[in-house]
Amino acid sequence: MQWKRMPLGPLQTNCYILWDDANRCLIIDPGAEGEKLVSWLDAQNLKPVAILLTHAHFDHIGAVDTVRNTYHVPVYLHEKEAEWLIDPGLNGSGLFGMGNIQTAPADHLLSSEKTLSIGGFTLGLFETPGHSPGSLSYYVQSEGIVFAGDTLFMGSIGRSDLPGGNHEQLLSSIHDHLLTLPESTAVLPGHGPETTVGEEMDGNPFLNGF
């Protein structure tokens, strides 16, 4: 498999594309600039099979409907944030003056940790709340990568001061799920460059004591 990080929108939110040898792909967090994303996918002859959301803050969902309607693929999201897609007050777009960002409801609501099998892809699903109540991380063991959303960054951790955030819960999510992965696992965050579990265990100042 191959993957690409594509920062999109005013907050440069990382959208990830993960594809296999048959050119099937998953789209993780299409946050904005839907036409740019679709143009790139078409140029690479990639065939989306699903959209996975790590959470439903406005900067992670802005291009959901463009991608969904272009390729007729389902959207996956944690059930705790089901209403966030249709409510600018919940997804934060109203709070941050970004206009009223809304999408159609998710097609599949996730409610527990399990293994997801979607269109030939197999992912481990971790509930990693703290940045938001329904934050998810998607682990692809065969590739040694985890899509961590806004839970863990290079040298930092996600905000917990937004509505529904919880600092202690965030730290527990990182400790109980992400830091238990092999140290070589690549952490693909919602903003900024990728890192590894080992690098964050050794050098992340917010994780002292872990």
Which regions have little confidence, pLDDT < 50, spanning 5+ residues? none
- Major β-sheet strand ordering: 1-2-3-4-5-6
Question: Major beta sheet, specifics?
Answer: 6 strands, mixed
Mean pLDDT: 95
Order of helices and strands: EEEHEHEHEEEEEEEHEEH
Q: Pairing-aware structural class of the strands and helices?
A: alpha/beta
Distance between the termini: 31 Å
Fraction of residues in H or I helices: 10-25%
From the spread of the alpha carbons, the general shape counts as: globular
**Proportion of residues in extended strands:** 25-35%
Query: If helices are DSSP runs of H or I spanning 4 or more residues, what is the number of helices?
Result: 5
Tell me the Rg in angstroms: 16 Å
Secondary structure: number of strands = 14
